[in-house]
Amino acid sequence: MTTKLTRRGFAKATLATGTGIGLATPALAQGGTELRMLMCWPKNFPGLGTSAERFAERVNIASNGALRINVFGAGEIVAPFEVLDAVAAGAGDMSHDTSYYWFGKDPAFVYFATVPFGLTADEHFTWLKFGGGQELWDKLGAEHGVKPLAVLNTGAQMGGWFKDEIKSADDLQGLRVRYPGLGGQMLAELGATPTNIPGGELYTALDSGTIDGLEWIAPWNDLAFGFHRAAKHYYYPGFHEMGHSISTYINAEVWSGLSEQEKTILQTAADAEYGTSLAEYNARNLAALNTLVDEHGVQLHQWPDDIIAKMQEIAPGIIKASAASSPLATEIHASWVGFRNEQKRWGEIGEYFNARLKQG
């Protein structure tokens, strides 16, 4: 859980550290508006960081330079898990993060990142656009002083890295693992001890033995972080993250102060980057996986059947219990489940994989 900061409190904190970051008013320079984006990951990191830069460039071009985004990496202004508070308090104008980092503020946030055995990237976008998801997200954002937009999706993720082979659920007993969100709660039911660690600190934690295993994203990002140097056992599928949506939360006062044209530019750029980033992840993950296995000796494993079965059994109860812990989470859960069930029916009929099973 991150600490809730008032605007005045965050102003004192930033002034005390000498950052000199202004509050709730985007910078005006050379006749344009500059928005400060605070990320939860390193600047220019493949996928997450580069997508943020590409989004910023889209906005700059579409506005003819009148609306510019200055991207700050994790730790440049605030620590990764302080990003949402910083934006809400006005010490930044917008974020680049994953919503399940804010689970401690309200469990409803997880529905806008990823839920175990949940929606694919396409289904999540459809829920936001045509299933009432964005309206509910806006309601959640308003309670925290921000306007949310979906700006990236990694697609299906991997199950994670472990120093020792996991042959059954018994092997998870006592393991210290980096697994955030509801996926971490599920592993805890099987005896593991989940923890949340910022992305930039993951390799050191795994290499030093602070944790025994972790999940991050997928082969493209995992190769870049070098996890194969600290662990050799790599698991799939990522049942906890079937399509992980990344968010930008814009300070509510900043958003309301933008023109309709500027809001449309930001929304359109976000929509475009969501699709582009998903395509890029799908394109790069297999090549990276081949490099990990063929060049670095990584052992690729499918999760043991008993673990998948237990996870499928555990997931509904954990998700329902989480949803019941806040009124808004309960409301969002009902929408999300109803939409998922409808999409499941359509997927069984229209999913193209079913049509090409016998193709060479």
Please give the structural blueprint:
Layout: H1 7-16, E1 27-29, E2 32-39, H2 48-62, E3 67-72, H3 83-89, E4 94-96, H4 121-130, H5 133-143, E5 146-153, E6 160-162, E7 176-178, H6 181-189, E8 193-195, H7 202-208, E9 213-214, H8 219-225, E10 233-236, E11 245-251, H9 252-257, H10 260-296, E12 299-302, H11 305-323, H12 327-350, H13 352-355
Parallel strand pairs: 2-3, 2-4, 7-8, 7-9, 10-12
Antiparallel strand pairs: 1-2, 5-11, 6-9, 6-10
Helix pairs in contact: 1-3, 2-10, 4-5, 5-12, 6-11, 8-10
Strand content: 15-25%
Distance between the termini: 50 Å
Question: Into which percent range does the helicity of residues fall?
Answer: 40-55%
**Could you spell the SSE succession in H and E letters?**
HEEHEHEHHEEEHEHEHEEHHEHHH
SS-derived structural category: alpha/beta
In CATH, the architecture of the largest domain is: 3-Layer(aba) Sandwich
Strand order of the biggest β-sheet? 8-7-9-6-10-12
- Quick one: CATH superfamily of the largest domain? Bacterial extracellular solute-binding protein, family 7
Number of distinct beta strands: 12
Rg calc: 20 Å
User: What is the count of helical runs?
Assistant: 13
Highest-level CATH class of the largest domain: Alpha Beta
Largest sheet report: 6 strands, mixed
What is the mean predicted local confidence, pLDDT?
90
How many structural domains can be distinguished in the coordinates? Answer: 2
* CATH fold description of the largest domain: D-Maltodextrin-Binding Protein, domain 2
Low-confidence stretches: 1-22
Task: Characterize the quaternary organization of these chains.
Answer: single chain
Shape: globular
